[in-house]
Design goal:
Elements (H helix, E strand, L loop, with lengths): L1 H17 L5 H54 L12 E4 L23 E7 L12 E10 L6 E8 L8 H4 L4 E18 L2 E5 L2 E2 H4 L5 E9 L5 E9 L5
Antiparallel strand pairs: 1-2, 1-7, 2-3, 3-4, 4-5, 5-6, 5-8, 8-9
Length: 241
Amino acid sequence: MWSLEKNRRRVRAASSGSRVGFTLVEMLVAVAVLGIMMGIVYGAFARASAVTVRMESYMDLNHVSLFIISRLADDLASASMLPNNQRGFMLGENMNTNGKLGAESKLGVEDKVRMDRISFTGFGRRLVSPGTASDQAVIMWYVHKNPDKDTFTLMRSESFNTLDEVDREQLAGGGFDITDTLRSFQISYLKISGAGAKWVDEFDSKTEGKLPEMVQLKFTLRDDKGSQVNGSTILPLGARL
């Protein structure tokens, strides 16, 4: 009897002690469940962060797109053949003529990608002091290939020395960059003649004797996060003389 009672007490003590802690199996199961829950939470957070970054990236590109359209529209609104200045002009160059970019640009992109250039005279927006340069300006929009990268920068240059001969190649060598996310930049020109109206990829006011009726702009922006914005608009010009 004494031995049986002693064994019962030991069993009860052992059973009571087992309820105080966790077994190794229980600990492993708890850690596994916690790991799964943390993985789910982290995955949801990572996806939310990626969506936020993508949205911010898209909004930035959209802002740049609106700026390009607005600034070029403002420039073209001042475009003029400068009736009192024989050096007034507009020159639209398709830099992909004959399936490759012109030697001046050396952009090295595929034939289907357009990287055009437009230069024209107009009237600048700066204040002019007596005895200094005129408010007549030469404005140029062009594309620059970034060294050692397969990316392109949209550039804008301006010169107020139109009473003197302006070297357009020198003008293209300076200026300020608008964006380095450019993937294509295409400009077309509306010509109206007796045969009707048509859009052309190149325009020379020295040949036509006047400015085009309108300018059509198409471009693509894409950043390193994969966001892309396609811009397109038709812009009127200033005095078409």
